[in-house]
Amino acid sequence: MEGVPALDEPLKKSLGPATAKVMAEALDLHTVGDLLHHYPRRYAERGELTTLSDLPLDEHVTVVAQVADARVLTFNGPKGRGQRLEVTITDGSGRVQLVFFGKGVHKPHKDLLPGTRAMFAGKVSLFNRRLQLAHPAYELLRGDNDESAENAVTWAGALIPIYPAAAKLESWKIAKAVDAVLPSAVDAADPLPPALREGRGLTDLPDALRKIHRPRTKADIADARERLKWDEAFVLQVALARRRHADTQLPAVARRPAPDGILDAFDAKLPFTLTDGQTKVSKEIFDDLGTEHPMHRLLQGEVGSGKTMVALRAMLAVVDSGGQAAMLAPTEVLAQQHHRSVTEMMGELAEGGMLGGADRATKVVLLTGSMGAAARRQALLDLVTGEAGIVIGTHALIEDKVQFHDLGLVVVDEQHRFGVEQRDALRGKGKQPPHLLVMTATPIPRTVAMTVFGDLETSVLDQLPAGRSPIASHVVPAADKPHFLTRAWERVREEVANGHQAYVVCPRIGDEEDQKKKSKASPEDEAEKRPPLAVLDVAEKLRTGPLAGLRIAVLHGRMHPDDKDDVMRRFAAGELDVLVATTVIEVGVNVPNATAMVIMDADRFGVSQLHQLRGRVGRGSAPGLCLLVSEMPEASPARQRLNAVATTLDGFELSRIDLEQRREGDVLGQAQSGVRSSLRMLTVIDDEEVIAAAREEATALVLADPDLTAHPGLRTALDALLSEEREEYLDKG
């Protein structure tokens, strides 16, 4: 909402070039509007007026007193001779010393002459067993009339805004700059329609800006915050509502499965029944696919809740209707894994045009960057002729050379790893916009879904299929209790002895490229924390130490794709006991016989990532075990985070914890598309009600007036929020 035209004036006109330059470099503030939307982080109270005889130690106080005497002393310090100003003040009840050092002595020495009355605010400390205030703020009181007594009380009770500051720009300098531009707030164009503002009892924008920067009372702050939260939530939701509205205007081919087609044949050979959740979500998807504008749906499902099955049935429905479906995976390992599991699930139905293929079969092709030329040529041919109904691949699918016969559905797996431009390029390959299904196993709290994926309808799979086993999780405090780590390796050996397999996950690979990256760290960083444990080192130690004799292999992102696939194939076939890997196994790797996972330096991973990793075990009938190894001390936030992961398997609960511990901007990630986060006031977890209400209001408003003709203020705020780059981001969202 920064850059409202009336507030578009560059700061250098109001503040002068030097201050404006520092504001731009340190805080990325360029216009009057930017500065007015740089809100105080908190407010300090100068506090009640305190008598000198009652000063509490280590607290911020404000006193009114008279200067008894003042003297400048010189002393020898580590940097040579220095100056100290000592001022004794009295209020009749007691005496206190004020001290000022260095260059800071000149002004107070001039101001604080014996006999002067003033207000002093600062933190009480103890020096040589005497109470003192070091470098207090002070305001001189002129004359001893009623006005100055009243002035004293007002000054003492004032709320002092503390701004997010930078090294070259202290909070009080920002406050001064705000004072200079605050009169311009009257020109702020109000984005909220008057009816909405009045209906919800919200103050107008100029008033909110005045109250947030210069509140007289705490009620002023509350009023301003409520109003400014609404601005952020509403403008963002209007942008998303317009996106959804535009999508409903796009044409698409309705895709309805043919009776007795490949979908019916597939369902008939399933060895299990779908969960209620899978049936419900499939119906939502089929209803969307049957309409003549493109589906835009987000499918959230816990790890192992059967999302791939739902996505496959949607793809088969599209193949039935004569179209093609493409599934995009973020990595080659995952694309190969999906291709393997889809062809296994479909059996002879995936052998279209081949000997032994079923009558209603189609072809399922894999397309990745590292395929050989001949295989690649054949895959491209199958796509352009329509021979292949389903293609699974990485971003290699998006290249210009790839042409489809009739692309009807795009399924994107693990959307948060996939660039928006890539999704858009793939959608551009249909004759008309294809339907879009986005899948994620990272549970997203409802408010984040409404904010980040606000242009997608949401389906949630929160029920695990029958036969999935529980996973026990424990924190292993390697530094406090080394014998726990010894026991962890014994547990891995026990699982292997029982015919199962295990993963050991490490934060980094440990080859030369890692070393180069690491060497850029400053010496202090190096000293403060050792580098994270590495796959290659840990694998070597396990081979010669606690897991000697077991069949151990490594897997990481810089291996040649053929080698990666070979390792995964051998692990899946049970030819390996332990896989030491980076997070390449985080998504989609499915080996039901793997029952144990040890995550080294678990504190170096995020909550959602740990939850994802843990989902790789317990995928068969035997129970899963996940051990989170950490050297962090017990009371540290990192350990509390690990304890949270160990105590719940509910991904939605964990995603809330994750969100509470991270800054909003990280969560919204690219939705901000490189532009400073538009959320200053709004916190997506705490302001759930505001976001939900703003979404309703925005949807109704956009339905009535898609071009916002009747709302020029809102249009302006929207243009400022959505620089073209961001509009595009939401476009592709």
The largest sheet has its strands arranged as 11-12-10-13-14-9-15
Number of helices: 28
Largest sheet: 7 strands, parallel
Oligomer: single chain
Rg calculated over all Cα atoms: 32 Å
Unreliably modeled segments: 518-528, 663-677, 727-733
For the secondary structure, the number of strands is 21
Overall mean pLDDT stands at: 82
How widely separated are the two ends?
20 Å
Shape: globular
Structural class: alpha/beta
Residues in helix, %:
40-55%
Strand content: 15-25%
SSE inventory with pairings:
Elements lengths: L10 H5 L1 H11 L4 H5 L5 E4 L14 E18 L2 E11 L4 E7 L4 H6 L5 E11 L2 E5 L2 E4 L5 H12 L1 E4 L8 H11 L12 H6 L5 H9 L4 H32 L12 H7 L7 H14 L6 E6 L5 H14 L3 E5 L3 H15 L16 E5 L5 H13 L2 E6 L13 E7 L6 H8 L7 E6 L5 H7 L4 E5 L9 E7 L4 H16 L3 E5 L6 H7 L4 H6 L6 H10 L7 E4 L5 H12 L5 E4 L12 E6 L7 H8 L9 E7 L6 H11 L3 H11 L2 H5 L19 H17 L7 H10 L2 H9 L1
Helix pairs in contact: 8-9, 9-26, 9-27, 10-12, 11-12, 16-26
Describe this structure in words.
A seven-stranded parallel β-sheet has the order 11-12-10-13-14-9-15, with helices on both faces. The chain is α/β, with parallel strands linked by helices and 733 residues long. It starts with 10 loop residues before the first helix and ends with a helix. Helix 14 (373-385) links the parallel strand 11 (363-367) and strand 12 (388-393). The protein has 28 helices and 21 strands. It is globular and about 105 Å long.
